[in-house]
Amino acid sequence: MTEKPSIRELGEFGLIRHLTGDLKMVQPETRLGVGDDAAVCEYGNSKVLITTDLLTEGVHFDLIYTPLKHLGYKAVAVNLSDICAMNGTPKQITIAIAISAKFTTEMMDELYAGIKLACEKYQVDLIGGDTSSSMTGMTLAVTAIGTAQEDTITYRNGALENDIICVSGDLGAAYMGLLLLEREKRVLRDNQITQPDFEGNEYLLERFLKPEPRKDIVDILKEKNVIPTSMIDISDGLSSEILHLCQQSNKGAKIYEEKIPIDLVTQQLAEKMNIIPTTAALNGGEDYELLFTIRPSDYEKIKGESKITAIGHITPASAGCYLITTGDSAIELKAQGWNPLA
Amino acid sequence: MTEKPSIRELGEFGLIRHLTGDLKMVQPETRLGVGDDAAVCEYGNSKVLITTDLLTEGVHFDLIYTPLKHLGYKAVAVNLSDICAMNGTPKQITIAIAISAKFTTEMMDELYAGIKLACEKYQVDLIGGDTSSSMTGMTLAVTAIGTAQEDTITYRNGALENDIICVSGDLGAAYMGLLLLEREKRVLRDNQITQPDFEGNEYLLERFLKPEPRKDIVDILKEKNVIPTSMIDISDGLSSEILHLCQQSNKGAKIYEEKIPIDLVTQQLAEKMNIIPTTAALNGGEDYELLFTIRPSDYEKIKGESKITAIGHITPASAGCYLITTGDSAIELKAQGWNPLA
Questions:
Q1: In this predicted model, what pLDDT tens digit does every residue of B251-308 receive, in sequence order?
Q2: Closest approach of chain B CAs to the CA of A159, in angstroms?
Q3: Do B85 and B169 share a domain, yes or no?
Q4: For residues B137 and B94, is the Cβ–Cβ distance under 8 A?
């Protein structure tokens, strides 16, 4: 009898494949189950998108430096991001929360202020949930529901050879924000007098603490009449997400270091902390930008758009997934994104 | 400045009201938000039901006496029960799980065996989820999605004066099962040699460890052409659920002790443990039976049905909610169900 691989060995995606690989869908309304940013159901000619995320204290967030209002906002935002990654429109959310005895009504009010702010900003209805206690710490489970049109819904598996690989916004900033918060937490622990020094780095903190789902990108694509061939949101780092798109589309990719959009503040702090900025972008994660591919013929339509950057193109699967560095060497992309089960 | 009430003072429902009372729905697809067994959305002429529950280790389940397969089954069952309580048909679920380092692949396989068994039995598709780690113990968040027809969907607020109050199955058994497991856990702690003694009480254990959503009742009502005027599932105990129906319908109720369906095994163990069987039924909870009201004119249609018992009738709100005992005294119903935030 061969022993089963451990959960650590399997990793998050391996475990999900192991547990759900044999599932068979039986309901006629189910169009797509496990494996993309959101599941897809069809109700009365509407494509309904459904996605769930669980955030646990000490693993996904540290309440020492995460204001509860930001946590509430972020818990909603990262789920809406999954709906956007299907080229969909977020419509509703449910929230289930477990809290330990240390939480007060005031703290819950703060958390809900963030939840409500995100709902208001993205015109999403909070339609249900569950509130309960936990033995330790806080757990938040958010389910987001959205809609997409039959002809514009975008999966991870549609990338075609020669497609242009695009990302929204800039990358690596959230990771540098996290490193900054972790550094200041250590400083504060050793020295109770010093005040945290975040001056000039507010952008990085905001990127980590208050990410925004890129609904604006979904709107821009619609306006410019561009239907991406594949799309995913960047939660685990650019490398990991490109590998997801390529695996599911059975393709390869070539991206160019010089093209990866990195903000000047990200770059400066990375260099100060002896981190290669490209590494922050490739492996950092939590940027919640959109990574997508478009047909070469659509490139002209988005060329002038400052919020979107073309960073490479899709190749045959046999060519593998590579980063071409500024020094013109080819480095194979590896999934070094965060493993929540490690 | 008045101080805010504590979470303990507010209780689960008070806290939810406090946090969500000011919500305004903006999406045209949202038909009903927080406040019933499930939220209701309308997608392309289909009524889509959505409900979420969070189960945390040490609060909702004790892994010392809960086999993981049963836990997986129950986590799905209790959510499907919420869909049934809207007179709907469960269609899909998503599951988000956080596990601590003590969990192995084999344990996750056991959990998923239960999840898959429930899905198979109720023909529900597991369409998505999230797997992550927690600092301590296990947390399970399940979202169930279902459909209902415009003209048969049943809310909590539709009970009318003189309606007959009905329950499915029998009550109090799950609570006696829990007490039995707790008793054996104490015995085992004090005495490692004794084997747990469950003989003759298997029904009670099964009722607690492996509850079934009453989809069969939804089917029977449909078949007999009965549309309940209001419905809720019994998760917190009969008292608490009758009060929910009456509050939301702005009505009163009179139920009769002698009519409350209690299994003989439940009755015998309750008496052995010095518990009044009616108390187990009223306050025990976790039976996941359906409590519903029907028009008096529909009574003939369900009269012979062994799975359904009429236990009383709806009165004007001013008459309050009362239990008429076998001794013919009237006792006001109080919500003494389990408060997960206490």
A1: 999 999 999 999 999 999 999 999 999 999 999 989 999 999 999 999 999 999 999 9
A2: 22
A3: no
A4: no
pLDDT tens, position by position, A33-59: 898 899 999 998 789 999 999 999 988
**Cβ neighbours of B147 in A, within 8 Å:** 29, 43
CATH number of the CATH domain containing B190: 3.90.650.10
| Pick from B6, B98, B341: CB nearest A139 | B98
> Among the three residues A114, A148, A182, which one is the final residue of a domain in this structure?
A148
Q: Are A177 and A295 a contacting pair, CB within 8 Å? A: no
Residue B203 C-alpha, separation from nearest chain A C-alpha, in angstroms: 28
Distance of alpha carbon B194 from alpha carbon B184, whole angstroms: 10
Region B194-206 average pLDDT: 82
- Is B1 within the bounds of a domain? no
**Nearest CA-CA distance, residue B153 and chain A, Å:** 16
Last residue of a domain, one of B115, B148, B181: B148
pTM here is: 0.92
Half-sphere exposure of A238 (CA within 13 A, CB side): 33
The answer to whether A235 touches A81, Cβ cutoff 8 Å, is yes
- CB spacing of A96 vs B15 below 8 angstroms: no
Cα separation of B154 and B293, whole Å? 10
B41 and B93: one domain? yes
Name the residue range of residue B58's domain. 7-148
Which residues in chain B touch residue A92, judged by CB atoms under 8 angstroms apart?
Answer: 27, 29-30, 39, 41, 50
> Does residue A292 belong to any structural domain of this protein?
yes
Contact residues on chain B for A338, CB-CB shorter than 8 A: none
pLDDT digits (tens, 9 = 90+) for A315-326: 999 999 999 999
In chain A, how many domains are there?
2
B62 and B36 inside one domain? yes
Which residues of chain A does B129 touch, with a Cβ-Cβ cutoff of 8 Å? 16, 20, 34, 52
Q: Are residues B99 and B215 in the same domain?
A: no
The residue count for chain A: 342
